[in-house]
Design goal:
Helix content: 40-55%
CATH architecture: 3-Layer(aba) Sandwich
Shape: elongated
Oligomer: single chain
CATH class: Alpha Beta
Distance between the termini: 50 Å
Number of helices: 5
Number of domains: 1
């Protein structure tokens, strides 16, 4: 390629490289494995995240004691905060909440014990791996 041809293409290359970040939609997975320690902080972080970057695609993947966040009637005992309305509001803003079925089986839990916003994944750890490696989600553990 000649220098003249390369210089003629530069404006187009610059436009493409500067437009790409604006076209990309951020994707984030929040990893919750202990609702008592992470629940309130995670929900607050997600709300703040969406307030600043409302187009962010957010998944919350729970496993181990993190699934307690998504159980019917779950609340932050220390601060007397009911998680249900917060989860419902975030679901309305596009956040998806996932529960690990391995944890459910280990703890003998059933799907009807969880809030209606909950979705279910065969393995929380595998789901987080898929979201990061295959789907290029950023990882946050509050």
């Amino acid at each position: 390629m000649s220098v003249r041809r390369f210089l003629a293409l530069l404006p187009m290359l610059f436009a493409l490289t500067t437009a790409a970040p604006a076209l990309a939609q951020d994707r984030v997975v929040y990893h919750i494995d202990n609702a008592a320690e992470q629940g309130t902080k995670a929900l607050r972080n997600i709300r703040n995240h969406l307030d600043v970057a409302p187009k962010t695609e957010i998944r919350v993947v729970t496993h181990a004691e993190g699934v307690d966040l998504l159980m019917e009637g779950a609340r932050d005992q220390k601060n007397s905060i009911d998680y249900g309305p917060l989860i419902s509001d975030l679901k309305g803003r596009g956040v998806r909440f996932e529960v690990c079925e391995i944890t459910m089986e280990r703890r003998k839990l059933t799907k009807d014990q969880f809030v209606m916003e909950a979705e279910f994944s065969p393995s929380g750890v595998v789901r987080i791996t898929e979201l990061q490696a295959r789907d290029h989600y950023a990882y946050i553990k509050p």
